[in-house]
Amino acid sequence: MISTADELRTRLADARAAAPQGTRIALISTIGALHDGHIDLVHRAREVADIVVVSVFVNPLRFATTAEFAAYPRTPDEDAKLLESLGVDVVFMPDAAELLPNGTATTKVSAGDLGLRYEGRARPFYFDGLLTVEAKLLNLVRPDVVVYGERDPQRIFLVRRMIRDLCFDVEVATVETVRGDDGLPVSTRVGMLEDRDLAAAGLLPAALDAAASNADRGVDACIAAAQSTLMGEPRIRLEYLSVVDPGSFLPVDEGHRGPALALIAASVAGHRFIDNAQIYIA
Length: 282
What we know:
Number of helices: 11
Order of helices and strands: HEHEHHEHHHEHEHHHEEE
Radius of gyration: 19 Å
Largest sheet: 5 strands, parallel
Distance between the termini: 50 Å
C-alpha cells in the first residue's frame, strides 16, 4: 500500500521500466468502503490492462459538510485485504493532506452548468471537487484506461468531457451496475436499511423498469409511469426523476426518439440513492 504521491510515481516508474513494451495501466478511483461493485471494476480493469492501480481516497471536496465527510464509513484495513486478494498491483491510499495540502484545492476543475444539474443540484460543486481530484489522479498515475461503474452516469459523462477538454491521453471503460436480488445497486447504504425501508427503496429500480416499459408512449408517459410506481410510499423522498439525452446529458423533449437515460434520486430513511436505466423511446 502506498500513501504518498512520490511513492506512487516511483512505484509506477519502476513498473513501467520492468514491463514489456505495450503494457497497459488501468486506474480505478474509489472513496473506499469497497463492495461487490468494486470487485467487478477490478475484474474489468484486468481485462483491459496489465497493471491495475486502485486509489482509495475519501475526497472531502465531494461532501457538503464536514459532518457528512466525517460520517462516511472508512474501512481501510478491509479494503486493503480485499484488493490484495484480487491481485491489485498498486493500492494508493493517501490522506487528505497529500492530495489537498491546503485543505482544499486552490486550482479547481469546473464541471460547468451541467455540474449543477441532477446530482449537482442536490450537492452544488460536488462535481467540481470530484473532477479536481480525478484530474490529480490522472496526472499522477498516467493510466492508459480508467474504469468506472455505470451507477453514476453523470460522473462518467463529466469525466469523459474533462478528458476531452483537457487533452488527457486516456480511455474510459465502464462496468454495468451490480444489483442485489431486490434490484437495488449494491452500495454501503443498502446494508444500513431496515427491512421495511429496504422494501421501499426497492421501488426505485421498479420505477425505472416502469419508465422503460412505457418508452414506446413517449417521454411524458415514461415519467408518469415511474412516478405512479412510487406514489403512496411515504418512506421515499423523491429528489429528481428525469429522462436525458446520453449525448448531452440534458433533458429530452417530448418529440425525442432514440436512446435515452432515465435518472432517479431519492432518500429513504435518511439514506440517499441514485439509479438509472437505459431506455429507447420509439
